[in-house]
Amino acid sequence: MDSRVKSFVEAAIAMAPVPDDEDTPRFRSVFISDLHLGTIGCQADALLDFLKHHPSEYLYLVGDIVDGWQLRKRWYWPQAHNDVVQKLLRRARKGSKVIFVPGNHDEFAREFCNHHFGGIEVMHDAVHTTADGRRMWITHGDYFDGVIRFAKWLAYLGDNAYELTLRVNHYFNLVRKRLGFPYWSLSAYLKDKVKMAVNFISDFEVALAHEARHRGYHGVICGHIHRAEMREIDGVLYCNDGDWVESLSALVEHMDGRLELVYWHQVVGAFAPLPSIKATKPVMA
Hints:
alpha/beta, Purple Acid Phosphatase, chain A, domain 2, eight-stranded mixed sheet, five-stranded mixed sheet, 8 helices
């Protein structure tokens, strides 16, 4: 484990909690992934706003929470990123069951599976039973990415290109913000338009759904590809909670077990309050 990352984790656990106004849970469960804390692309302020307004009984961190790949190359850690860590630790201290399933960017945490950090349980993967009795397999999803499994050097190369895209996008959106336009993601646009990316995403989704069915689960909840989606594939519910770099999305479970994909919208340079949380996918029963 990288010494600077390890030192940060230890320091974060020891620090005082960030003030919070959490009261009664609005959701039974919240699933978030791909925060990529430690990178310029992380939308930490939006995430803090979301977590502040949405306490839950269960909180699943579905991988790539801390970007160890980028932190090993250059240290970037503004106060907002530390505040996110403190918010997650506080959520666990206040009684929520917080489960962290590491991804490929925070794979250093996989050596701590079946242990707790500040009340947060680290697991290789997890199974969540919804209030209506469905068993959902929770995994980051990188094991079903052929590039990660068989050509990790290519994954690092792609990560560098992605980081460059995010940096360009960051400054581009500063201009858009000053002109009163909402956030726009170049990388998300490319994923929608480039045939190779579209095919990769489709293959990834089908592979995870088939593995969930093979294991006997009703569905799968994952992250990794930064593509929020909820759909049925061959009788299995595939859910990708998206990310907090591009889509600013989360998967939530209502008290009756209904699952819903929600987005936290940015408007005119600020993040809208609670009413702006909006589902853009149908609730799956």
